[in-house]
Each structure stands twice: as structure tokens, then as C-alpha cells.
Amino acid sequence: MNLNITLLPGDGIGPEVLAQAVKCLQAVEETFGHNFTYTEASIGAVAMDQTGNPLPEETLEICKNSDAILFGTIGTLKYDDNPDAKVRPEQGLLQLRMDLNLFSSIRPVKIFPTLLEKSPLKKEIILGTDFVIYRELTGGIYFGEKKLSADGTVASDLCQYSEREISRIAHLAFKAAKNRKQKLTVVDKANVLETSRLWRKIVSKIGESYPEVTLEYLLADNAAMQIMLNPKQFDVILTDNLFGDILSDQGSAICGSKGLLPSASIGNDYAMFEPFHGSYTQVQGQNIANPIASILSAAMLLNHFGLNEEAQAIIVAVDKALRKNISTKDINPASTYGTSQVGDFISQNI
Amino acid sequence: MNLNITLLPGDGIGPEVLAQAVKCLQAVEETFGHNFTYTEASIGAVAMDQTGNPLPEETLEICKNSDAILFGTIGTLKYDDNPDAKVRPEQGLLQLRMDLNLFSSIRPVKIFPTLLEKSPLKKEIILGTDFVIYRELTGGIYFGEKKLSADGTVASDLCQYSEREISRIAHLAFKAAKNRKQKLTVVDKANVLETSRLWRKIVSKIGESYPEVTLEYLLADNAAMQIMLNPKQFDVILTDNLFGDILSDQGSAICGSKGLLPSASIGNDYAMFEPFHGSYTQVQGQNIANPIASILSAAMLLNHFGLNEEAQAIIVAVDKALRKNISTKDINPASTYGTSQVGDFISQNI
Ligand SMILES: CC(C)[C@H](C(=O)O)[C@@H](O)C(=O)O
Ligand SMILES: CC(C)[C@H](C(=O)O)[C@@H](O)C(=O)O
User: Fold this and answer.
1) Is B142 an active-site residue?
2) Which residue ranges form the domains of chain A, and what is each CATH number?
3) Is the pTM value of this prediction over 0.90?
4) Residue A117: phi, psi to the nearest 5?
5) Nearest to A122 among B120, B204, B225 (CB)
6) Which residues form the signal peptide (chains A, B) (predicted)?
């Protein structure tokens, strides 16, 4: 297969981890006889420093002309600590999600049996956890109108959802549940928010077309408890942009390292693949960041194009690395393997 | 001391657990020679069934004429499952918070040494955890304008904060941190939300008046991870209404049972005390709900009026019950002690 892949390394540890994912894709090309071409483009703080714009027009064009996008990470402390910054690196990512209409973020939370010990949760609680979060990605409070009064004393963010925005991701989530353990949990705050009540109304109607799927609702505060107390109860979680952001990071923590989980951001026309984790600028360039989340993002990319055997080859190689303790310090504090050594081992085992 | 206390049992397990808290207050009266009077009033689904209003005018008047309020729990499944309900029990609580201007919810998260084993988190992670969440309680997305389009296809909730709303709770949180471990962590989503950036700006300015307090910022998604990975790092967490709702429930889960933690809702003129946990209607009337959160709310009430020795007597009695395994089934599945037996034991040991 021929695939045109855009690489967006971004900020912080993005470039280092993405480079390992590319090594793995190249190994897949060789082993399975595919032909992928890679085009790199800039986004985030790096792009701001070069062009003043966190999502340069050229980057957007390159993305639109490719089959899929592999994304690194975004954000730097420099802008985080400055509440007055008018433009921020994250806007590049948010704008890209919007411009490519990537309305659905798919975030699988699955325990690596080799890493059971790394979880902060007790073994009996975590063992067998396997769920996936469908997070709405282009609506809600992330994209509603933002205001700051002229005298700078009152600020607001609008959370808005339409039937169309809710139903398109709800269908994806129901379909996923149908092919998994047939359970869909909608997380919201329906006892307080009007938008949550609209979610419930629309999702319950759509549910009638998926009679094999058991539908339940969970308030967001309770969900944050349940993910810790009994994560095994979940199959597919469907939620809005903000709750999805918080719960998916919480989900990644139960796996023991933030450096392990990949995600897919899907729309009708485009697809982007990226780690759960952030830009972790503090360790940038030190060759100690865990590349596995980024490598597994490449596997999700392959799955997206039906290259399931190829994706499986990556997953098996990752598993081998973990079993052999060939991992970065976040997993194995005594490790002497760096980001690129872990990437080498995994790609050589594909 | 003479105290005029309003009792608001509310829905679900509220009445049962509140009754145990009252037993303990009565024991305190006797042992320490105080004189408390109790006036009961209705709120929530119970009040709706009686008057159509989840916060009857009479209830509000009684609250305003008392020194403090002891609250049970609110909400029933009947309304949760009906997205079309125009009035909901929770509005009674939200309206009460607003009308009494209870702008600050104080939620301590502390591990009971006797219950270490009950936490879903590993012992070494949880041991020594002791932080308190200052959650803004009368602003943000909870109280901003809510809209539903005439055709029912678009809904919105406005999240709004003013300098005044932020600074009054920030001062309380800084003062608390000053008297504790001198660290304040502000949780927000400043890389996305305008309101979060206003929080940062105002809090960092106020911080200049508290030079002994170390101020740090944490994004809400990261906070949800950190509470699981390393809860010991926190001293005082300051956050908005919605993030505070989610994170405090997550905080209660790390303690092993939702039935243990109390909270205080404080304004300039009134104070209300209530459990973290919800109305848990499923077990209502079965005498199996854990009364400890409600009993410890009564202790927080006593602390509020400087009756620290009295509060301590309650805490010691709770501890004794836990050490002697006199607890409800959520803590000790083989237990034969019900809600009222636990309440009896604790009140008799004051
Ligand atoms: C970087 C940030 C804007 C982003 C988000 O909040 O969506 C990230 O946390 C994520 O989860 O993808
Ligand atoms: C009952 C509900 C409205 C309330 C809230 O969301 O504030 C509760 O969850 C709480 O945390 O006090």
C-alpha cells in the first residue's frame, strides 16, 4: 500500500518520540512491502517561533494533502506560565482538529500485563481493564466563544453542543461498543448542565438503533471515582470534550506510565494519531522520554487503513521490549535504554 | 454555647446518615454542657413532592435564621433518568448555595490509617496523604446562563468568573495553605479556557501577599493523573466549581470509601456542612449506608465555632469505631452493624 503520511513533531519531547514511530513504520514498509512517504511540517511553539502562527497555512495544506497525520506533542512552559499570552502553541492543535474536522478522539485504556506492577492501583483492581474513551473533540467549551471584559475583571467560556455534533460521535461509539463488550457509558453532568441533558436525550434516542448495546449514564464526578474503584466495569465511554480530556488522562495514569497510550483523532475525511501524553518539556532532548505511546500511535494508523497484521507486528515488538525490560526510566528506573535505543529495539523486531 | 442548627435531610440516604450526626451532636451537648437546638426543613426531591419546589421559601428562611446548617444528600434516580424534567432536586442545593452565598467548599482528603487497606491505591502511594480542596461553589458553569434552542437541537452552558469571585476564595485558600504545609496548587485548564487564565492572573497577584506559600499551577487533566500517581504532593488545591466537583470525588475514592469524607460550604454569613457522597438512593432505608461522612460533617461544624475539643471527641470516637471494626458493609463486608448501630457506638463514645 502507498501512504502519504504527514509528520507533525511539535514541541517538547514530540520530535524524539515521533522519530521512533517513524523507524517502526519504516520497518513495516520493509517487512511487508509497503511504500510510505513522510512529509514533515511545523506546529505549536516551534511554528510560532518561526512564523508567529502555531498552525501555519502551509502545515494545514500538507495535512490536507496526506492520507494520515502522525502527531508528536504540543506546548511549552514558556507560554503556560504567561496568562497574558495572546497566542498559544495549543491553539495550533485545537485549530488543526477543527480545520480537519477531527470530531472524535478515540483513547483506548488497556493494561499491559507486563506492567501490572507499575500501576498505582492494586493488581486485583486493575487486572483485565480494557476500555476505550470516545471523546468529542471539536465542540463544547473548547471551541465556544471566549470573552474577557475590557477592564480584564470578568472572563467567560461558552460550552455549546448541537444535535449534529453529538449524534455523529455517538454513532461511532455505539458501533465500537457493538463490536466489543456491548456496553456504552455516557459520562456527563446532567444534574447541572443543559448540554449534558441534550447529550442524554440524543444518545438515548440513537440507542434505540443499537438494541444489543446496554446504555448507561454516569455523572462525571462519579466517573472519576469509578475509574479508580472499578475500571474493569467499562467497555466504551462516550463523553464531551472537557470531561474526555480529564478522564482520559486519569485513564492513562491507571496504566502506570503516561508514556504508553496512543490515541486516534478521527473525522469523516482525515485521521490523526498521537500519544495521550503531553510535551513534557522538562526532559526534552535528553533521550529519556518513553516512545511507546508514539509507536503505538503508528500502529493505530496502520489499523485505520486495515493493515492489521502490520499493526499487530508493532504491538508484538512493543510487548517483547517490555518483557525484556528494554524500556525507558519511567518504567524501569535502573534502565540504561534511552528513547532511541527503545525505538531501535522495537523497530528491529518488526 | 447555644447553637441554632438547621437540619436538611434531603433525599436518598440523607435522613438516615444525618440522624447519626445529630446523635453525636446531642452527645457533645451532654458531655460538654452545650445547648443546641435543631430545626428540620425540607429540600430536594422530598420538597418537590410536597411543594413542587426543591427549595421552599420556608426552608430558606429557616436556614437564614440559624447559626449553621447540617445537610444530608440530594437527588433521586427518578429525575436523573429524565432529561426533560424542568425542575430537579439538585436545583434546591444549588439555589441554597447561591442564596446563602456559600462560595467556598472545603473538602479535606485525608487517609484514615485504619483504612489504608481499603484504598484502591497501593499503600506506599496513599500513606500520608493529607490535602484539602478549596472548590469555588457559587460561580462558573454551574450558574452561568443555560440555553436550549426552541427546536431543542442546540444547548449551551456559560462558564463565567469575575475577579471578585476568584479573589475571595483565593484568599481563603492562601490562608489555609499558610497554616498547613505552605503549598497552594491551582488547578485549571489555562491552555484552553479564558476563565482559567483569569484565575491564574488574579491568583498570582494575590500570591504576592502570601510570600511564605509556594504557588503552583496544574492543568486539570494532569491533576486527575497526579491525584492517583502521587497524592502526597498536595497541600491545598484551589479550583473552580466544575473541576472541584470532579477532583474532590476522585479524592474521596482514594480514601477507599465514599462514605467517609465530610465537607464544609462557607460564605461570609452562613456555613453548611455535608458529606462528599451522594444520595445513593439504591440503598435508601436499608440501614446500611455509612454515617461517618455525615458524623464528621458535624465535627467540622463544631470546628467552625471554635469547639475544637468537641470536634476532636467526635473524631476520636469515629477512629475507635473503625479500629474496633464497628462499621458498615462498605468498609467491612462481613459487618452486621447498620447505619444506626454505628451511630450509636460513636455517639456513646463521645
Ligand atoms: C494540549 C491540550 C490542548 C490537549 C487538550 O486539552 O485537548 C491535550 O490535553 C489532549 O488531551 O489532547
Ligand atoms: C448534587 C450535585 C449538584 C453536587 C455538585 O455537583 O456540586 C454534588 O456532586 C457535590 O459535589 O456537592
Assistant:
1) yes
2) 1-100+270-350 (3.40.718.10), 105-258 (3.40.718.10)
3) yes
4) -65, -25
5) B120
6) none
